[in-house]
């Protein structure tokens, strides 16, 4: 780190999309200034065991992700997945989450679209929030759930930028992209980059999505870091190694897809949309706790947010905290994060400088 170092007094930061199951170093969150995390898919028993470890951040749990039964795909055995066959089973799961002191329920990509609105109403009746990973850019096809239908139904947060895929490209193009078989996670994410490379960023579909999200007050958690990791061939590992079929997509289209994601996030923010920092940090994905949080903030900076806006997205309060299920469980001013860097924007833009000081940490939680 070069130049005159200043100390920045920041609020406690929150990573609002993680998976703690099997995570090996939960203390890495606090070492990076992340004082709270929102677990969006994990066995309650395992998540509580992680939360009790020394040096752990405050943990807000949504329990296991809820999907249509039988749960299918490569993630069926991960993250405490819960399969439901009808609305009565949704209600039973909501009651269990409320009794367990959870903050909300996460709906997964195969959750029946017709049950989203009644599930939101039932969750809110129990003072629970609803996070939705929409089956719009995921396995096995892009149009399992219409993204704007979920937003209009009142979901509190939309998880992952690619949840909006089906709302942003024309139906005929969409149909062309769901004919090939999907047999790996990598193939699905390769398809996501191809789709986003086709998004007309100045077109009416983007405007409609932005307007609908802003009007609804739904919080968007883009989790850009995994996509940036897949697009970065220089890593030679992590997500690219695990999801190798992503490499079959031409490099220029991968770059175009990632660029479109950043542009969309920038437009959403400029229109008044609510954003929060989540990383999808989990065991075995290459998205590591703590450091990936600063990488996510760097990507939000690249999307056009100011350094101040990025810090606010990383320390939710007010309406955003309430929609994320954080109210009463986390407050950014309960902790202070002291950051030593020559410049705040530079520290966010180049987070590697924060983790390379041999003598003393650049980040300290007070």
Walk me through the structure.
- With 366 residues, the chain is α/β, with parallel strands linked by helices.
- The chain has 16 helices and 13 strands.
- Helix 1 links the parallel strand 2 and strand 3.
- It is globular.
- The protein starts with 5 loop residues before the first strand and ends with a strand.
The mean pLDDT is 87
Class by helix and strand content?
Answer: alpha/beta
The DSSP helix count reads 16
Order of helices and strands: EEHEHEEEHEHEHEHHHHEHHHEHHHEHE
Largest sheet: 5 strands, parallel
Number of strands: 13
Q: What separation lies between the terminal Cα atoms? A: 22 Å
Helix content: 25-40%
What topology does this entry show?
Layout lengths: L5 E6 L1 E6 L8 H5 L2 E6 L4 H8 L6 E4 L4 E3 L13 E3 L2 H13 L4 E4 L8 H10 L3 E4 L14 H6 L4 E3 L5 H4 L2 H6 L8 H13 L6 H13 L2 E3 L3 H7 L6 H5 L8 H20 L3 E2 L15 H12 L4 H7 L4 H6 L12 E6 L2 H6 L13 E3 L1
Parallel strand pairs: 2-3, 3-4, 5-6, 7-8, 8-9, 9-10, 10-11
Antiparallel strand pairs: 1-12, 12-13
């Amino acid at each position: 780190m070069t130049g005159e170092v200043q100390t920045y007094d920041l609020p406690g930061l929150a990573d609002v999309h993680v998976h703690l199951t099997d995570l090996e170093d939960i203390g890495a969150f606090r070492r990076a200034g992340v004082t709270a995390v929102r677990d969006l898919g994990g066995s309650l028993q395992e998540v509580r065991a992680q939360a009790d470890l020394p040096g752990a951040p405050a943990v807000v749990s949504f329990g296991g992700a809820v999907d249509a039964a039988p749960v299918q795909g490569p993630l069926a055995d991960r993250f405490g997945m819960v399969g439901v066959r009808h609305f009565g089973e949704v209600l039973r799961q909501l009651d269990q989450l409320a009794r367990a002191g959870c903050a909300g329920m996460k709906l997964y990509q195969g959750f029946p679209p017709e049950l989203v609105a009644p599930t939101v109403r039932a969750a809110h009746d129990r003072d629970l929030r609803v996070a939705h990973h929409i089956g719009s850019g995921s396995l096995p096809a892009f149009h399992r759930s219409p993204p704007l239908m979920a937003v209009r139904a009142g979901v509190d947060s939309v998880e992952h930028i690619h949840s909006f895929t089906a709302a942003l490209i024309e139906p005929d193009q969409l149909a062309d992209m769901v004919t090939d078989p999907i047999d790996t996670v990598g193939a699905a994410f390769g398809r996501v980059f191809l789709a986003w490379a086709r998004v007309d960023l100045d077109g009416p579909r983007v405007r409609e999505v932005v307007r609908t999200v802003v009007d609804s007050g739904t919080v968007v958690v883009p989790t850009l870091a995994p996509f940036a990791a897949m697009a970065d061939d220089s890593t030679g590992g992590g997500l690219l190694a695990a999801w190798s079929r992503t490499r079959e997509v031409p490099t220029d289209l991968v770059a175009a897809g990632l660029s479109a994601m950043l542009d969309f996030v920038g437009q959403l923010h400029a229109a008044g949309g609510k954003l929060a920092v989540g990383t999808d940090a989990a065991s075995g994905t290459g998205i590591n706790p703590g450091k990936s949080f600063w990488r996510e903030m760097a990507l939000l900076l690249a999307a056009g947010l100011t350094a101040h806006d990025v810090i606010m997205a990383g320390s939710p309060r007010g309406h955003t905290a309430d929609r994320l299920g954080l109210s009463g469980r986390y407050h950014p001013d309960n902790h202070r994060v002291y950051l030593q860097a020559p410049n705040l924007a530079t520290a966010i833009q180049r987070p590697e400088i924060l983790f390379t000081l041999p003598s003393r940490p650049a980040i300290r939680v007070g």
